[in-house]
Amino acid sequence: MALTEVMPKALTISFLLGFTCLGVKSAEIPKGSAQASKATPTASVTSDLPGIPDSEEFRAFKEALQKAEDGDSKAQCVIGLSYLVGSEKKGIQKTEATAEAWYLKAAKQGNKTAFKQLREIHGRRAGELRAKGKSDTEEVAEFLKFGLLLGRDQDLLSSEISDSTKAEAKRRAAKFRQENGLPAASGASR
Fold it and tell me: Closest by alpha carbon to 153, among 189, 127, 126?
């Protein structure tokens, strides 16, 4: 069974792109080597699940998961994307909360991809709340916070966002930087 038969096309592409960026090529790891033993999957991800082939891409996913668990921020983003998109056939349940948790781990290391993904997650949530007529202040503040961490000061120019929400976003971004030892955004006053 081909990988494209068991994975959505977008996830296949993101896996291949993500693993290319990580330099993950499990075929290059000799079986039985110390490197191969580090790629042991966690209990939640195994190729013993029905319908999941023990493909090169699946082995690369397991290796990326191990790297993510070991603190590699690029791998954490790949795993975050995996959970954001999900694939039942690959044994990966679509879980935004899990995706957000992986992205947050990467963001705490200053990973810009994680900032972008978290910004998008909070922006979407704010839009959903606004469409339901509910308060979106918390989600907008988080959206702005991750935008500020990216150096997107222009997000603060919107007249639709209250000054108090903008001030809260600035406070949250400064606190996030301080707690995680991140430098001030480029172009921001120091």
Answer: 189
